[in-house]
Design a protein that fits this description.
Blueprint lengths: L1 H11 L7 E3 L7 H4 L31 H14 L6 E3 L3 E7 L2 E6 L2 E5 L2 E3 L6 E2 L14 E3 L13 E5 L3 H10 L5 E5 L6 E2 L8 H9 L1 H23 L5 H17 L3 H6 L12 E2 L3 H5 L4 E4 L3 E5 L2 E4 L4 E3 L2 E4 L3 E2 L8 E3 L6 H4 L18 E3 L12 H20 L6 E3 L1 H15 L26 H9 L6 E3 L1
Parallel strand pairs: 1-2, 3-19, 6-20, 8-17, 9-10, 9-17, 10-13, 11-12
Antiparallel strand pairs: 3-4, 4-5, 7-18, 14-15, 15-16, 21-22
């Protein structure tokens, strides 16, 4: 979605020599790759859409994945983006030489003045390290690589993981499969938010009144910032206390069996991990043919999953809803910057970028949804749009001939990172849980300030923080 947006905005800004490389055969990013039953966005649809292409026809407050993918494809057609996309073309290497980027792809070489990396965050599946996983006698696949050829009706399904994907799959399949075993390593706080359909009269009103649709998006954006983004960065905020109260009430009221309720109760604060949004997970896991397995998995065998208590959970299908490797960004692309220094070397300890968009020593390379930006329960479309407005101002310096190379200075990047690490200590993400937000030091790899500050930072680059050659 960020690459489609970038292509449209570049065209609007007057740039014509633009090529988008897409290694798959269609657009859509995470909404192309995640096709599991129940897949949906946990950000309201009218906010999780492009500001320049509002959609009055969303079917639900939180739209299903296929509908989002269709929206992205429709926007690409409407703005004639597909003409500049090279499908089925994987970028293998980028090297900055002679003031330009040499681009090596599976379709051959290219050269570019500027590279924008819109490679996403939740892209590379994380597979669990479980003994015997390859010995299972039935189908095994990751939730982001769903095998639709596998029939599930009446089958015994084992689902590993309890994040957002697992919760959505549980609710979608509990009435389809014969048995469902959910293997939980860590319980999740679940916020119950209703997802009603948007009435036809409401959709017609938005179609007839674009101003009302824009006003709704702005209202959602403001509410999302005030009631979530700005409260999780202050572990002592009243807003966060309210979120925790709502999550506790959902657990207390939604789970009848006291023993099951306690096994579903986290021992950390709400929003310490990525908050799970679901109006029906607790109802689904209490179905007669569903069971929550909290004993640790010892190994997978041909007939099923054996837990450390010695029990063999006989299964027909195993689904791994175990998340993603969130530290990849451009990798595995080999990226070589000035002086022959590779991005792999620059990121040897961990990924980092000034304001999440620029890496020192890699001029004219800009990242969208890069390291340490707002991630998690945010509209990454809104984040990417704000970042691209910022990037476009730097690209304008090159286009106007004011400089030939631009990237963040090492000093500015170090100063930003030090301030970010310090600010992260005040967020809810460091209050006592393990999550994919945390890097190898236990520091949240995320934007630790308010969303209002992010907007301010993205308004205009501080050129003193950049090397302009």
């Amino acid at each position: 979605m960020a690459g489609v947006m970038a292509a449209i905005r570049l065209k609007e800004a007057g740039f014509r020599d633009v090529t988008v490389y897409e290694k798959a055969d269609r657009i859509g990013g995470t909404w192309r790759e995640n096709t599991y039953p129940g897949v949906a966005c946990d950000v309201p649809s009218h906010l999780y859409s492009y500001s320049f292409a509002p959609n009055p026809e969303w079917s639900h407050v939180f739209s299903p994945g296929p509908e989002i993918r269709d929206y992205l494809e429709a926007v690409a057609r409407r703005f004639d983006v597909e003409r500049c996309i090279s499908f089925g073309t994987e970028v293998e290497r980028l090297e900055f030489a002679g003031g330009r980027w040499r681009v090596e792809t599976t379709a051959g070489p290219d050269v570019a003045d500027v590279v924008v990396a819109a490679t996403g965050v939740l892209h590379h599946p994380r597979y669990p390290d479980i003994d015997g996983l390859d010995t299972f006698g039935g189908p095994v696949f990751h939730s982001a690589r769903w095998d639709h050829t596998v029939a599930l009706e009446g089958r015994r399904l084992g689902l590993v993981g309890t994040g957002s994907s697992a919760v959505q799959i549980t609710a979608a399949l509990v009435d389809v499969v014969g048995e469902l075993a959910l293997f939980q390593r860590t319980p999740q706080w679940v916020l119950s938010v209703p997802n009603p359909p948007i009435e036809a009269t409401e959709r017609a009103r938005f179609a007839a009144d674009p101003a009302a649709l824009r006003a709704l998006r702005e209202e959602l954006s403001r509410g999302f910032a005030d009631n979530f983004a700005n409260v999780v960065v202050d572990a002592d905020s009243e807003g966060l206390a309210l979120i925790e109260e709502l999550c506790r009430a959902n657990l207390e009221e939604g789970v009848r069996d006291p023993e099951l309720r306690e096994r579903l109760r986290p021992d950390y604060r709400a929003a310490c991990k990525r908050l799970v949004i679901s109006p029906n997970f607790y109802e689904a896991i209490q179905a007669p043919h569903a069971r929550l397995v909290t004993d640790r998995i010892a190994a997978v065998e041909a007939e099923g999953v054996r837990t450390v208590d010695g029990r063999l959970h006989a299964l027909d299908v195993v689904v791994l809803a175990t998340g993603f490797r969130v530290d990849r960004f451009l990798r595995p692309i080999e990226v070589v910057g000035e002086g022959g220094r590779s991005l792999e070397t620059a990121w040897a300890q961990r990924p980092s970028a000034y304001l999440s968009v620029s890496v020192p020593g890699f001029p004219n390379l800009f990242l969208l949804n890069g390291p340490n930006g707002p991630v998690g329960n945010f509209s990454l479309i809104e984040v990417a749009e704000l970042q691209f407005d910022y990037v476009l101002q730097l690209v304008a310096l090159l286009a106007e001939g004011r400089c030939a190379k631009v990237c963040a200075s090492a000093e500015a990047a170090e100063r930003f990172e030090a301030a970010r690490v310090e600010a992260a200590q005040r967020t809810v993400w460091v209050t006592g849980c393990r999550s994919w937000y945390l890097d190898d030091r236990g520091v949240p790899a995320a934007w630790p300030w308010t969303f209002d500050r992010f907007r301010q930072e993205m308004a205009a680059p501080r050129l003193d923080d950049f090397e302009l050659a």
